[in-house]
Amino acid sequence: MGYIATDKSDYKPIPEGTHHAVCSALIDLGYQEAFGATKPQLLLRFEFPDSRVEREKNGAKASEPMVKWQFYTKSLNKKANLRRDLEGWRDRGFTKEELAGFDLRSIVGHACQISIIHDHSGDQVKDKIRTIGKFMGDGTKPLPELEVIKYSKEEGEIDQWEIMPDWIKDKIKLAVEDNVVALPANAESEPFVDSDVPF
What we know:
By secondary structure, the protein is mostly beta strands. It has a domain at 20-108 and 143-173. The protein has helices at residues 81-90, 96-100, 158-163, 166-173; strands spanning 17-34, 37-57, 60-73, 111-119, 126-133, 149-151.
């Protein structure tokens, strides 16, 4: 079967249910065209440490957490999915001051709870994030196992570009203009600090 190609995928969905997860990537995709509109988009990666898959790395098999990439329009508007999910994650609403300028880099490295459901509408079963909530439980909060990525074209993180998957690089290259909505200039990422409100 070594030379036989098929249309079957080895994609394995994250099991349905509520999982502990941790955000390990924040990628600014610039302005992207979608559904007849051009909007600033970003991409988050969540790791699911209790759901594992074997991947080949440097010629050897290694156990890694399953991951879910989630696209968002970069907006904290009342109806925005990003705002809804961040408020669920924080377990509280945004203040007026936070809505004026919230540094998204503060969410990377923080744990949460994610409810996964399966979509059976197509030929494949696909996992979907239903809700994101505050981390609950007595156990230790998970930390990222994969290499953390924080990328914004405007910030010019060349080293981060090199570690991103090719499909994300291709998406960034499709940005329709260079006027990327930036993460705050001159702002440095705060070190990870555990607290009741994660960020």
